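Entry type: protein chain
Record version: 2
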Amino acid sequence: MNKIFPNAEAALDGLLRDGMLIASGGFGLCGIPERLIDAIVASGVTGLTVASNNAGIDGEGLGKLLRTRQIAKMLSSYVGENKEFERQYLAGELEVEFCPQGTLAERMRAGGAGIPGFYTKTGVGTQVAEGKEVKNFDGQDYILERGIFADLAIVKAWKADETGNLVFRKTARNFNAPAATCGKVCVVEVEEIVPVGSLDPDSIHLPGVYVQRLIVGSPYDKKIEFRTVREREAA
């Protein structure tokens, strides 16, 4: 089966619909599926629920979908760098489900493993636990968290072979791997596709069985959320 598509629009053809749940990889602006996000913006689908560690920043990453009002609900851990996200949430225009980072990663991983729910101590006794089942194990309270089963996963990897085996690079590995597993369909953009057999089997981070469609998205510009420099010392 040929998994390689010529561009993001072709790779998403037939997959997008209003109101769907999308799991998106990335951490800040690192390892975000830029080309696929742009194609979703261009498609015009609305009412989306997006599960992602954060929503990018204003005008970058998922921030583009917020700007066009295509996202109805965000399921996220960290939203502090996106002013439009803040504005929409405070104005009641965007539904937000906050989820601790580790719990969010595990919810994606659980969905990918076919696990509908699990218990965790994270959030016990806080607002995170409100409305959730609490169960006691060995004298300790745990809350029930649901696995995430997304309609579509969009992720960014460093390299892939022609069958979809993936290698992530450094920080980009954090949420991309669990996000990739929890989608009914997983579409991946990579910097390079290499022939089968080129990747060391022990270096593969995600097997190609999870990947249905691939594109090459390069070249990429490395975007920086904050640029902090120190003043030059006097000579």
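Comment: The first helix runs from residue 8 to 12.
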